[in-house]
Amino acid sequence: MTIQEAIRARHSVRKYTGQLIEAAKVEVLRSELDKANAESGLNIQLVLEEPKSFSSGIWKYGQFSGVKNYFVMAGPKGKEAEEMIGYYGEKMVILAQMLGLNTCWVGLTYKKIPGTYELRGTDVVHCVIALGYGANQGVQHPVKPAERFYSSAVSAPEWFLKGLEMALLAPTAVNQQKFKFILHSGGKVEVRPLPSIYGYTMIDLGIVKYHFEVGAGIENFEWM
Prior knowledge:
Elements: H1 3-9, H2 23-40, E1 45-47, E2 69-75, H3 79-98, E3 102-106, E4 124-132, E5 150-152, H4 158-167, E6 179-184, E7 188-193, H5 201-216, E8 222-223
Parallel strand pairs: 5-6, 7-8
Antiparallel strand pairs: 1-2, 2-4, 3-4, 6-7
């Protein structure tokens, strides 16, 4: 499975079977997680076989069940860190999909369980990502017309449209898709977060930027 195929196949899953994740797959995930932390300065951690974080039934949104594995998306405070949380977290999400696993970004519907992860002095937990074998494969969120999400003073080349296509498949908080791409001359691309009552727009931005890079090819453009 290619990265683009994984992006198309991956949907948010909230119900899991509880099946153990094989040691070989855990090794691959931990290896890539270490690379992500080294590149970004984040403190992403993988928690396995821990059912308490998702055991609360007080949340109306989410309806999670069977979750025992998750990524703790920790790092410094601030918008830059939030964007990196989205970017590197989504890389882990797509890798998990390629390994035959399912995932779901989770902003609120979980509990922080002491002793399951370690924070550095200035770290905060921005969110978590549920991980495991899904009881189903989830459902594709509605894809809106691409024209709503970009502006350009020049004709959009094929690589830009392919990048946008992948970006529109990106998961965002409550499917809000609060972002806009701007194509500048000389192969330069800008993407801006838009106001949202739900927040998480900088994390969403990082997720969307990763998807765009996969579709457009990072050799074809330069971020502004």
